[in-house]
Amino acid sequence: MVQMAAVVDHVFICTTIGAPEADGLRRFGVVEGSSNQHPGQGTACRRFFFRNAMVEFLWVENAAEARSDQTRRTKLWERWSGDRRITSPFGIILRPAPGTQAACPFASWEYSPPSMPGLTLHIAEASGLEEPMWCFIESGSPPVEAPPDRRQTLEHPAGLREITAVRIVCPLIEHTSLTLAMAHAGVITSDTGPEHLLELH
């Protein structure tokens, strides 16, 4: 296994509008952080923060914006509205590993939407809808290092502190897929199965 100088910054899960699915985490004893809207992109989310990473429950709030010229290439609309037997509802966003200034570890295109100044996301060119959306954010940092005005609750009654592993299961995945390449590099673990699953440790 080749270790890569990138780590998971956050993951997203496409949900129904308003993400009632996120209530399960709250009942389990995970404190919800601030929600977020993505102007011009047509999406919104509920978020849960841990010391080293974040989980985002994402939905489309404005279909026209999600299918606009600005956003269309991300395929967020297709990922959110697609057939769950085929389309993965997950996204994995990486950042440089601590102490490195790593470049994006896969071929990508740059997403810098005018409606969200300051955001620059490298989106993988090679990942299809049958596997998670893969992104890289150079400016990513662990939530525990957030400045005071952006700091979120990191202490949870359930006793959870960090995300220590991410496992992806896909029903249909090619041996040449980016997801398997990231698994071979030690960023995640991956498997095949009858349905799309995201397992967090």
Q: How would you portray this structure in words?
A:
The protein has helices spanning 23-28, 63-66, 76-81, 178-184; strands at residues 6-14, 36-38, 43-49, 54-60, 90-96, 108-111, 121-124, 133-136, 166-170, 189-192, 197-200. It starts with 5 loop residues before the first strand and ends with a strand. The mean pLDDT is 94. It has a single domain (6-161), classed as Roll (2,3-Dihydroxybiphenyl 1,2-Dioxygenase, domain 1), CATH 3.10.180. It is mainly beta and 201 residues long. The chain has four helices and eleven strands, in the order βαβββααβββββαββ. Helix 4 (178-184) links the parallel strand 9 (166-170) and strand 10. The longest helix has 7 residues, at 178-184. An eight-stranded mixed β-sheet has the order 2-3-4-1-5-8-7-6.
Helix percent band: 10-25%
Shape: globular
What would you report as the Rg, rounded to the nearest angstrom? 16 Å
Number of discrete domains:
1
Query: Helix and strand succession?
Result: EHEEEHHEEEEEHEE
Counted by DSSP, the helix tally is 4
Secondary-structure blueprint:
Elements: E1 6-14, H1 23-28, E2 36-38, E3 43-49, E4 54-60, H2 63-66, H3 76-81, E5 90-96, E6 108-111, E7 121-124, E8 133-136, E9 166-170, H4 178-184, E10 189-192, E11 197-200
Parallel strand pairs: 1-4, 5-8, 9-10
Antiparallel strand pairs: 1-5, 2-3, 3-4, 6-7, 7-8, 9-11
What distinguishing features does this structure have?
201 residues; mainly beta; 2,3-Dihydroxybiphenyl 1,2-Dioxygenase, domain 1; 8-stranded mixed beta sheet; 3-stranded mixed beta sheet; 29% strand
